[in-house]
Every structure is written in C-alpha cells, then in structure tokens.
Amino acid sequence: MPEDEWLLISAAQIIDTPADDWADIQVLDRFVSLFGRLIIKCKKGNTFSRYVFNLSKYLDQAIVREVLPCVYSGEKFEGYDHVHLPYHRLSDIFNGRILPIYYEALKKITGVYCLTDTHTGKLYIGSATGEEGVAQRWGNYLDSKHGSNKKLIALYEQKGAEYFEKYFTYTLLEYFGLSYDPIKILEREQYWKRCFDTIKNGYNDN
User: Fold this and answer.
1) Higher model confidence: residue 175 or residue 35?
2) Domains of the chain
3) Of residues 156 and 101, more confidently modeled
4) Sign of the alpha-carbon torsion through 160, 162, 165, 167
C-alpha cells in the first residue's frame, strides 16, 4: 500500500479489557463485507499501535480512497512490459477475483499479443484494435476459447475447452494508446507473424 493508505482488515468493538491479557472484542458484522476491500487514506504517522487503532480519532481527516471489487491479495500490476498470463490467471483477473486494476489497465491499450500453446509450443499472433483495447479481445478468448480464429476453432473442436484452460498463455508483445493508427498495429502483427513463422508452424492462417 502507498504511504498513508490503509486497508481495512477488521473492525470490532471492545467488550472488556482484562488485566494482563488481550482485550475481548466483538467483530462488527455490518462491516464484514468491506474487510480486505476498503482502502482509507489517512495520515496517522509512525506511532504506537501502528496497525491497530481507533479510527474514530481520525474520522475528520480520513477519506475513502477505494472499495475494491475483490479482496486485496497483495499482488500488483507490474506494467505492460510484464503481461504474461496463463488462462486461469487471466480468467481470475477478468472476473474480478484478483488484481482488478489489471483489467482496467488492459482496457486502456491496443496492441499485438501472442497466444502460446505450452503443450505443443505453437503460437498464435493477434492484434487488438477495439474501443476497449486488449481487454475486449482477450475477453473474447475467455468466452469462446478460440476467438473465431480458423485453426484455433479446429483445435477447440478436436480438444475441447479444457485444453485451452490447461495449456494456453496470453502475452502482450507490443502496446499502444487507444487512438493509435489500427493500420500500423496490423502491420506490426504481420511483422511478428513473420518473425515466429506462425502461419507455417503455428495457429495463424493468414
């Protein structure tokens, strides 16, 4: 978490404070749905009880920074140069189970990508030029597995959805802004197809 931002882990009422023992508490059920999701911006300082404190003392300065769609996992979006996702991780991101910021990041770019069949080593090179960028295109693969591509459809009909879920990974090769010329993106797609010879030795058919 950035400095002065706090993740709500629990909220409870103190029932009793016995001598030489931990306080007896009762978890406040009405806040349970926010545990691990509510981020508060509050300048508390490096004082005693750094991670457990009475929030009521800071309510005049505390600001709700964000309510995450899923429980915070501690993982971070490492940047567009490090997008390399196996199928199930991609599915978890798109369904809001982990790294919700990842999906938003993929909506902001167009680009050229590579699908890798880790069982055979075959590649498929594609491009994303739609209004919602790479997220829109990769969402199509999650829905259909094959993305309406001829050789991938044939693989799907032969092997089934489970094959894609087990063996396919999704890698971003190049990324551009949403307003970048789609013709130039298609030219870059063809460049990568030639580099990896994916029409002859992979899943591209043109």
Assistant:
1) 175
2) 5-67 (no CATH), 80-201 (3.40.1440.10)
3) 156
4) negative
